[in-house]
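Recap for those who missed Tuesday's class. We walked through two folding examples back to back. For each one, the amino acid string is listed first and its predicted structure tokens come directly after. Nothing is annotated here on purpose, so try labeling regions yourself before you check the end of the notes.
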Amino acid sequence: MNYSRQEKLKAELVMAGFWEANAPSDPTKHWTALEELCERVQKRLAEAASLFVSPLDGGRQSYQVLLSYKNEDRIIGMGEDIYEAMCTAAVTLPALLAQHPEYAAANSSKSRENCDLLISQ
């Protein structure tokens, strides 16, 4: 992912309320920040919802983020790398939750277990 795409995604994350503009770490390029972003996304999801990150076409160049809810799976983000895929998923989440309120957490301040970036192969 190039620098301009990173900056655009970071700005969109700030606008969506997932990230702070002056945060020292950046989920578009820092692993620990990406894990924090994943936890923030997970907190907005219903208990029955899970996120999975997997490479596309068995390769490691492109990734997708899958939202699994009960018996339904939905791709909510894709990208050249795991950072772009997860950031894209976070940016699209507010609109998705507006369309599908059943995916949303009943209480956005709830405590969730640690969000693992599960990478399927």
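Example two. Treat it independently of the first, because the proteins are unrelated.
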Amino acid sequence: MWRLFLFMNLPVSIVSIFLTSLLMGCLGPKNGAVDREVLSVNLPRWSFLASASGQMEAGRERLPKVVYVFPALRLNDLGQPMDRMRHREDTAGGLLWSSTAPAGHEIKMILEKKLRQKGFAPGTFSALTQAPDGHTILVVNPFYKEAGPSSYNSESAANASWINLIRIEAATFPLDLDPNKKREIFVLEAVSLFNDQNLDEQVIKRAAAYLLDHIGRSGTWSERVNLLN
């Protein structure tokens, strides 16, 4: 409880610095831009081609079962978050975080639902700040890049080839939540190729759930994914 009290009574600027470190800790040098070459294929409208990659902490065999999922943030062309995080207090005095990204909250809900199906227990931010031991809660940060025309769509035609990106990072933190002492657990990313700009948000959401089916997988792979599943 004392950690939550201290956190909530920090100046807003300090809280912002902490959240920036917490949310961006795993981004590293990756630019997150949607500029990766993918194969040109004749895709049905209700499917997309996911060019995916994963990286798991070396030697990691088990994951914490309690997770906290932040709302998603959009990435700009430099791979930096372009949205803001906001918070309000719940009835118990805990913090509820929201994102200015249009799909930020919905992606959080989709990830939490998928994690429940996989045996995890999504918790609150208060559970994270009041955890009795360090590195016992998995903190999940989703990021996405909205659709841009692929190299096969030079005229940016709405019904032609588009690509977007979803990136999911997971880490654990010590008892004092020092972001400099976090453990990076896994990173999953998908660059998706699809044939209708209007499907951008649906592809992002479906790709987010798809990636969580590959927790623990390392390497790169490509797969056609049905949007309607």
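Answers for example two:
Helices lie at 2-8, 12-24, 104-117, 125-129, 200-212.
Residues 1-21, 24-40 have pLDDT under 50 and may be disordered.
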